[in-house]
Amino acid sequence: MLVTTTENVVGRTVLEVKGQVFGVVVRSRGVGGNFVASLRTIFGGEIKEYSSMIEEARRHAIDRMVVNATAMGANAIVMMRFDGSEIGQIMSEVVAYGTAVVIDKP
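Predicted structure:
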């Protein structure tokens, strides 16, 4: 499955638009992770516990989006984007979304 942030794929033609597609992941750090992260906020710098959590959540959101696009009969996703938000100050939501399409074979 080709996933791109661009509207078009160079050298390929979109044959069919299947529709919007997305993958959602909601994550929460454990008590220990939150404690270590809160200590890091005192001293400044990158909060690696949260960076790794969000990076992993983005990968899982893309994987879920690809599964949904495949179920729709698509072989590519164009205009892929991420969105994120906080839920109740203890959870993070990551959404990967785009347009599922069928593109011609090279």
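Summary: The helical segments are 31-43, 48-71.
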